[in-house]
Amino acid sequence: MEIRSESRIKHPQDRVFAVYRDRLPEVAKYIPDIKEVIVKKREEAGDVIKLHNEWASDRDIPSVLKAFLKPEYLRWDDFATWNETGKYCDWTIKTRVFTDSFVCSGRNSFIADGQETRVVLTGNISINLKELPGVPSFLAKRVGPQLEQFIVSTITPNLEQVNKSLQRFMDEKS
Question: Which end of the chain is flanked by fewer CB atoms within 10 Å, N or C?
Fold first, then answer.
């Protein structure tokens, strides 16, 4: 499933890029359904910074999925490579559950537009429903689509909401 989002943030490109990269744990407090973002690792090499952030969701698990999902499964790892020169970030998300069945990756591009910044998020989410561990095959057809929708509905809005939250954060901290 393709992800695409475009937002305009009313701050200069350099500031938006730096705040997005370096202050995401603070911005996370502005994102609905996100409990926290924790920086697990940071590596700097010239104009490239690699980050491993752990995200935790506050979302409630739908009752039909509670037998298969535990609250601690609503955490995921975000591996991002930030390119200062190109003003973009390539990212990959790894879930804590269904790790062999779930693939999510993409790019955030930060495009200067006068004194504003266009943030363009493109990516893909792929879930292989045939290999869901712990789901009996006779339930996979019934539960699978609900599980896919739940995961997509948890991650996609949060990816898009980050831009709105970043705008609010930067407005308040200016």
Answer: C
